[in-house]
Hints:
Blueprint (H helix, E strand, L loop, with lengths): L1 H12 L10 H5 L20 E11 L3 E15 L3 E12 L2 E4 L3 E2 L4 E23 L2 E22 L5 E21 L3 E12 L3 E14 L2 E8 L2 E8 L2 E10 L4 E14 L2 E14 L7 E14 L1
Antiparallel strand pairs: 1-2, 1-16, 2-3, 3-6, 4-6, 5-6, 6-7, 7-8, 8-9, 9-10, 10-11, 11-12, 12-13, 13-14, 14-15, 15-16
Amino acid sequence: MILLIFASSFAQLGLGDILIPGTGRTAIIRSPILNDHSFNPASFSDKIYTEFTSKITFSSSRQFTPTVSSIGLSIPAMKKINIGMGVDMLYNQNFSYTFPEDTNEWDTYTQKITRIGNILRYFGFLSFKSGKMRLGAMYGYLHGNSEYRWTIDFTRYRDIHDTTFTEYKGLTYSGGIAYTFDRIQIGLFGEKVYLEGQFTHYNICAGISYKTGDIEILFSLFNLNPQIGIIWNEISLGGGYTNWGDEHVLEKHAGLSYTHKLKDNPFTFFFMLRHLEDTGTGYGLEDTEYCAGFSFEFNE
């Protein structure tokens, strides 16, 4: 049952994806200053902007999950205001784990736990641009479900099966600001994520970027956890770690992406590696994800 709680924590947190949906570049580099409306609501596009992201995830916990992870649309109005909406797949992972065989005073048995489900966010945002400063706010509705299957397979006695179904509902709010200098850009955003009957999380991310020639270097702190990224022409590299102290999960991640422009429309391929470690149960449980996907942005 301890692993059930551990896997549930992964589900609730969305393995970090609840904080980094959107295009391939923002999936690679956790930054509050990249121009992606699904991350910092202060982001601003001067054109009609649409975005589509899809990915396939493999993991050491026997997972194979193809998903459409996000769809977004933003429309500028009166040259200073941007209105947008979209849908993000914040969580969609199948988790399965079999405990080593164990023995009590009357039989030998094996425990297995499986979890399937997803959480979607339906959101709208409004951003405002004045000179080199941008401000924005976002409101989102969370909805999803999950199913937990727990099995104890005995050698001599009848097996035990149990299934629990959970429906998720919640809200998310965020506000952000970004400011651009000649070669430097800074950004800050705060977010509240509330899942009814599950948890409430408050997240803060601050960052800075510096661009020289074809190279842009980004550094950010997500809840005081460092993230770093480098963009060189069409290639992006990034990585960092996040210690989810309340959930006893340590996440380490790294990624690589390549962007090719079709006229003015970026088409991005990305690959991500994420390793998750249990820091609270004492069982030494861990999981590794390998994720590949693409995103397409259309600017009109």
